[in-house]
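Researcher: We're reviewing a set of sequences before deciding which ones to prioritize for further study. For each one, I'd like a predicted 3D structure that I can look through quickly. This is Pyrimidine-nucleoside phosphorylase. If possible, include the structure in token form so it fits the rest of the review sheet.
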Amino acid sequence: MKIIDLINKKKRSAELTKEEIEFFIDGFVKGQIPDYQASAFLMSIWFNGMNNKETSLLTNAMVSSGDTMDLSFIKGKTVDKHSTGGVGDKLSLTVSPIIASLGISLAKMSGRGLGHTGGTIDKLEAIEGLNTELTKEQFNKTIQETGMVIAGQTANLVPADKKLYALRDVTGTVDSIPLIASSIMSKKIASGANSIVLDVKVGSGAFMKTIDEARELASVMVSIGESLGRKTIAVLSNMDQPIGRYVGNRLEVLEAYELLSGEYEEDLYELTVEISKQLLISTGDFTEDQAVKAIEESLASGKALQTFKRFLEAQGGKVDSIFNEKHKFKIAVKSPRDGYISKIDSEEVGMASLMLGAGRENKDSVINHATGVEIHKKIGNKVSAGDTLFTLYTDTENINEISDRLLNATVINEERVEKTNSILEVVK
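Model: Here's the predicted structure for Pyrimidine-nucleoside phosphorylase, in token form for your review sheet.
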């Protein structure tokens, strides 16, 4: 078998076989297929796509390229969640302790942020002492003790994805549904959970800008999960404004803690309940009504908050450090006029947070865990001239460019607009 034959076959939109896909992944990971031929193959997929069968085969071949997590030592059901990336998305920190407090184990491998979207590992590392680079023994011990664990991806988990993504990033083939879906799902399948819930973001702050694009990606990922023996559900959620009140690492951990304590923004609460509900339903042990009741009871009783604290401490974190403000300045960005908020460009808010030091321009950037943006007004809110729209948590007073960026990202109209729905659709 030769890679040039696979390139020509996909160039003609023909369906690839299991053996051909495994040949490509195996050869590429081992360095037997050079980058220039792999690039041509990826570009042929970009132009002509893959059907669901091919995408599932690609995903499975990627899973088999490295280690997989064995969660069979855990009694009962195991679940996992994934977000396609958003601004102010701290849902792993609100959902996971709720699920764990209800006796369902959640084992999660997470990543770091890049560009305008944040990463769960960066948020957790804002907590003094917390360790996300766990050994297998530490990983297993944490989930057995607390019912949840969130750690960085192990070096040999889906090495095919690491190599493929690096190549896609420099060859213009990132935005391919089959390649996106196989990248996400290979890591989820390799992580070993029985069921998976995918939070697919839609809108200005998301990779998928339209609901049609998001629906297509969600449908492909659900198909992959089901074909590989995992109960899989996708929730399409609105990313046309940042989630909750804070964007920035320590600030988002603080907001997660506040929600678990009973103080929250409505959109963050709605998303937390929906993702938690779908995770419980995915186990087959809860109806929709039972799931919602269990979630509400976990929050009201404080069980979810106590689980969160135990989890942080189990991974070495000092819980009290969440409340330590280490930024130097808090600077208000005020409304220039009266009216109603009709738009907040999420990507621009994410970029403002990055400019404050809370995000990465490239993978080698050093982030500031203390800085970020507080959002005081959301879509549909009334504002008066001089009202504070944003507060910047910053280590510099030179914030004119950032302030202007946030004001340009915010549209204020004379007429009231309806608040946006957080949940757009569920794909099963």
